[in-house]
Amino acid sequence: MGRRLTDVSTPARLAATGEGLGQDELALAARNHGLPLEAMRYDVTPPGLHYVLTHYDIPLVPDEAAWRLTVSGRVRRVLSLSTAELRTRPAVTTRVTLECAGNGRALLSPRPVSQPWLVEAVGTAEWTGVPLRLLLAEAGVASDAVDVVFTGADHGVERGVEQDYERSLPIDIATCEEPEVLVAYAMDGAPLPPQHGRPLRLVVPGWYGMAQVKWLRGITVIDTPFTGFQQAVTYRIRRKPEETGEPVTRIAPRALVIPPGFPDFMSRTRVVAPGPVLLEGRAWSGCAPVTSVRVSTDGGATWQPAELEPDRGHRWAWRRWSFLWSAVPGDHVLSVRATDGAANTQPLEQPWNQGGFANNVVQRVPVFCPDTAHTG
Amino acid sequence: MGRRLTDVSTPARLAATGEGLGQDELALAARNHGLPLEAMRYDVTPPGLHYVLTHYDIPLVPDEAAWRLTVSGRVRRVLSLSTAELRTRPAVTTRVTLECAGNGRALLSPRPVSQPWLVEAVGTAEWTGVPLRLLLAEAGVASDAVDVVFTGADHGVERGVEQDYERSLPIDIATCEEPEVLVAYAMDGAPLPPQHGRPLRLVVPGWYGMAQVKWLRGITVIDTPFTGFQQAVTYRIRRKPEETGEPVTRIAPRALVIPPGFPDFMSRTRVVAPGPVLLEGRAWSGCAPVTSVRVSTDGGATWQPAELEPDRGHRWAWRRWSFLWSAVPGDHVLSVRATDGAANTQPLEQPWNQGGFANNVVQRVPVFCPDTAHTG
User: Residues of the signal sequence (chains A, B) (predicted)?
Assistant: First the structure.
């Protein structure tokens, strides 16, 4: 008795040196999930394979016809729209690669204790919805607008703060045409699955997952910078807890390889036969188009250019790359490194931050090539 | 150089006392995934929320039209069937709850190091396919048939043994009418998703997941007991490694509660307001129909009967139960316990086995009820 919410909702912490993952981290890893890396073979991720990260529970939506999206705050007229009304407005479909801001967190040392991603928190889908800028224009944004706040129906407590999930975008991003922010009601031509925000979600091409507010029910224009928990307390790059830090925004460049050959069940070490091995994978950046991908098959000692597939007009989606490797018997470490048109590239050693955000250190895939072919 | 496959594919092991999860277990947890427990609200699990466990990689199937299922071995005539040919045969649709044999493994002490499930490795789908017994009758099974072996296209190495995933059923199970074993080509009315075995999989209602061979390409009738890795080496209940052990077969009874209220992000502790709370969940057993569900709100000290929804004719699917709880301020532990018609019930303390299979200890859900309502 007499306990408070803060007793069951404790501050952020870092794992001790050598501390394995705890059951709290496992509980998150078991209910959320990443992309099995072999699924990068598909241009558009098949249903159920796209990464999912839900802070709280997937909300219960007993009656989608009763769902309303409200646009309010510093606007000339408040909108209250049903999903049917949204579907009568101009629709845009965009192929977008989404990545969790915490991707790579479990590789850090010390490890921030949170959802423990390795490198697989990514996926690509075709999102269909109404351009946010059209809804804001319809509502009539006041000239003193600063931020636009997006409120989801997912409710929980985090570090003692009870909240609906809320994030904001600066007004210039919210009203931008490229990238075109969407209030999306369909994923790959079907209504949104429950875990992806049914019936409505935000899609902000090029930004990390925390911006892609799911179960969207409120859009509020405000005339001061938003200071909500998910904006000001977390999703910031801080070297020390007391720093204000920089907000996490656009996706840093990353390339991943589809692990070649076949795996060992437990160690996930890859086994390849000696001879030619076509390495393939994907590369993306939310900052600027990917301009080059380089591959190392010797743990980063030397790098060679991969072939990047031509630009097929999907600016906000990953691009395929390939590289023909001649595997010889022995142990190898494959790495791949993307660079974008703004000269951003992937670090070889990861700078560290408290939350484990925006990590994009080059992937390392151990491969074993036995003396004799084991090709099944 | 000179290393062998067994150097990257090591024996089974148990975690040391207090040993947290390693990156090998995390790599499995990140690519496989469980059912977010709130998704038990749906009778049939929506796409992407059903649990997934893949031993190796999801195989690449570049041309489904070229896929062939072969029925051979101790049969009068060998069959080689395309998926189109299978679709011309009599089809059956069955609602089936599937559960991984390793569900609950990460709760054991010591913890077998493998895919670390808590309790969420479950899901329910409507599977459509051809009854296996009809295909076996078409091929003409020899009178000396003992086992039927099912071969998937998923290839890997496990404890040093390179293999295609293979499991068998005794001939009497394979030719049974109830449960009707299916060679399934559809899940919830759509072609199988890649991670669920596209284009073909086995569905054995009432049996744990290891029997549900995905990416099915071979059915072989043999006249001796099958001794493959997944049948004789693993998926056996052993107290000590040197025991032969008993094979894992049918799903033991289990009930789970949809965690009430809302969660803390990190601890996943549940928070409920004081007052009436409708507890709901699901119960299932592969051994016999569930006959009762009992609920404890005091950590197992006392138990009260839950209301079990009427039998709706889905013998092989979970059943909904409900219980009205009056929450009072303080800390509580919710538990729920299913019993089936064969008098199987869930243990209050889990018997231990080497592989962590068929665990069905009663769930424990910590709930915090603050003095004042926090209902968002």
Answer: none
